[in-house]
Design goal:
Strand order of the largest sheet: 1-4-5-8-7-6
Strand content: over 45%
Structural class: mainly beta
Largest sheet: 6 strands, antiparallel, barrel
Number of strands: 8
Order of helices and strands: HEEEEHEEEE
Oligomer: single chain
Shape: globular
Number of helices: 2
Length: about 140
C-alpha cells in the first residue's frame, strides 16, 4: 500500500510529465459580516504568487450537476493541481507561457486527502481578461 507521500509524488510526476506551467496568485481579502450579508473585499492589489503545474480539462458530463446548480458554466475549465499549492476562492491562475488568466470559482475547490495529506486538488476556473479582477492589471 503506497504512503500518502508516495501518492503525492506520483501525482506531481504526472503533472511534471503532462501538465503546463502555471502561477497561482492569492490576493488577501477581508470579510465584513455585519452588513446583513457576507461582503468580501480586496485588501491589497498585490498578492502572493506560487509556481507549479496543472492539467486543464473542459467541463464535461461528470460536472453536469454543477452546471445545473449554476456553480459553473459549460465553457469553464477544471484544473488539476498539486496538493501542496495554496489555492482559494480569491486566487488567479496564470496558465502557460502565453499567459491565459483564470479566476478560481469560490465554491469550485475540491481537495483529495489521504491520511490528512492533500494528494491533489481540483478547481473550477473561469477565463478572465486583464482588468476583470481587482488585482490584475
Amino acid at each position: 500500500m503506497p504512503t500518502p507521500s508516495e501518492l503525492r509524488n506520483d501525482f506531481n510526476e504526472t503533472i511534471d510529465e503532462n501538465g503546463i506551467p502555471c502561477t497561482i496568485t492569492n490576493y488577501p481579502t477581508i470579510t465584513f459580516t455585519n452588513t446583513g450579508y457576507d461582503d468580501e473585499q480586496l485588501v491589497s492589489a498585490s498578492g502572493t504568487a506560487t509556481s507549479g503545474g496543472c492539467l486543464l480539462l473542459p467541463i464535461g458530463a461528470s460536472d453536469r450537476q454543477y452546471v445545473e446548480q449554476g456553480l459553473v458554466l459549460w465553457n469553464d475549465q477544471k484544473a488539476f493541481l498539486a496538493g501542496s499549492l495554496p489555492i482559494s476562492g480569491n486566487s488567479i491562475i496564470l496558465v502557460g507561457n502565453a499567459g491565459s488568466l483564470y479566476e478560481v470559482l469560490p465554491q469550485g475547490i475540491k481537495r483529495y486527502d489521504v491520511s490528512g495529506t492533500t494528494i491533489y486538488q481540483t478547481a473550477y476556473i473561469r477565463s478572465i481578461i486583464s482588468g476583470q479582477h481587482a488585482g490584475v492589471v
